[in-house]
Amino acid sequence: MPIKSPHMILLVLLLCACAPKGPPPPRLDVSISEVHGARIGMMEQTYNLVLRVQNPNNFDIETDGLSFDIETNGKPFARGVSNQSVSVPRLSEIMVKVDAVSDLSSLIGQIRSVPRVAVAGFKYRLVGRFFSGEQRFPFDYRGNIAPDEPE
């Protein structure tokens, strides 16, 4: 049976748009707490990182791995993965040790940007996801280290 009124179609679309959405997906807040150079090779560099993982949810979150990318000053710098299981208690935080790997071209690009960093500051981004079975907990953190102001 064809619908004869365009008003009826519009009403159905409006009702669907106003239907309640489910609760927002749970999230984890992740930032970089520490970075240490581990192995510096000709083609690759490895860094030991400590990530601060905060659970703002009112329930514990169990994860079984993560993957992440690090950008510095808007350019890809390093990446990492881990299959370690992590339990983040509700309304709490933990520190997670992971490794990240960069390549020679990323390192050279960062060295070339030192003059700009001295003037504009150092911007970085940590983006990735924790895994819990088939569920994903994405995270995206941006930070900025301002240059020293002359006195």
Strand content: over 45%
Number of domains: 1
| CATH fold node name | Immunoglobulin-like
Largest sheet: 4 strands, antiparallel
Report the total helices: 3
Q: Which regions contain 5 or more consecutive residues with pLDDT less than 50?
A: none
Give the overall shape: extended
The helix/strand series, from N terminus to C terminus, equals HEEEEEEEHHEE
**How many β-strand runs?**
9
Q: CA-to-CA gap between the ends? A: 79 Å
Q: Class in CATH?
A: Mainly Beta
Q: Class by helix and strand content?
A: alpha+beta
Topology:
Elements: H1 6-18, E1 29-40, E2 44-55, E3 61-63, E4 65-72, E5 75-82, E6 86-88, E7 92-103, H2 104-112, H3 114-120, E8 122-132, E9 135-145
Outline of this structure?
The protein has about 150 residues and is of the alpha+beta class. It has helices at about 5-20, 105-110, 115-120, and strands at about 30-40, 45-55, 60-65, 65-70, 75-80, 85-90, 90-105, 120-130, 135-145. The strands form three sheets. A four-stranded antiparallel β-sheet has the order 5-4-8-9. It has a three-stranded antiparallel β-sheet with strand order 1-2-7.
Describe this entry's structure for a reader.
- This protein is of the alpha+beta class and 151 residues long.
- It is extended.
- It is built from 3 helices and 9 strands.
- It has a single domain (24-145), classed as Immunoglobulin-like.
- It has a 4-stranded antiparallel β-sheet.
Notable characteristics:
single chain, 151 residues, alpha+beta, four-stranded antiparallel β-sheet, three-stranded antiparallel β-sheet, extended
